[in-house]
Amino acid sequence: AVSCASSTTCVAFGDYKDAKGDQFGLIVTKSASQWVAAEAPSPTGASTSSPGEAESASACAAGFCVAVGQYRSASGNLGGLVLVEEGGRWSALSMPVLGGAPALSAVACSAGQVCSAAGSYGSGPKLEGYLLLIDGTSLSAETSPLPPNHGTDPLVDLGSVACPAAGACVASGAYDESGSATVQLPLVVSQ
Question: What is the pLDDT of residues 124-135, one digit of tens each?
């Protein structure tokens, strides 16, 4: 994932493997004309050999950026990853859990340090939509609403989010309708 706040300030996320084959999150930042690489911070409880990877990034303004994705815990479970950069310093934030490990796939910022992220969470066969509000380093989460025809296991997949103005975000994805495990219908959630 790559995002630029201006023509001279960009950030890219991915992963790399060390000489032992362990995988780590990677942050590459550009300031002026210089690129600098660093290992991404890991959340508390992350695996030391394969902690995580950011899948989506949004640079809101110079000095503030957010990236989201997944990480693997020391016990082998997946969890949601939120990385925040303020004034050149990156940190991993603890995410609210709504009933299963969240996986985030998209993030967008509207103004200042206010961003929204989308993905899914669940345990077993039931997958719900996960919406996350990021206000600086403060996080709050909620389950995505669904239309009345959703199934008991809606298999929600929110894959994109856009925030064209402060307080106005839209997430989109798909869900399974009632009685159908093979047909996914579009889903749009607005703030």
Answer: 668 888 999 998
Taking the CA atoms of the chain, what radius of gyration do you get in angstroms? 17
- Find the angle CA(167)-CA(2)-CA(187) to the nearest 5 degrees: 45
User: Cα–Cα distance between 140 and 180 in angstroms, integer?
Assistant: 32
Phi, psi of 12 (to 5 degrees): -125, 145
Helix runs in the chain, H state only = none
User: Is 57 or 113 the better-scoring residue by pLDDT?
Assistant: 113
pTM of the full predicted structure?
0.84
Q: How far apart are CA 171 and CA 169, in angstroms?
A: 7
Condensed to tens digits (0 to 9), the pLDDT of residues 58-95 reads 766 667 888 888 888 888 887 888 999 888 888 999 88
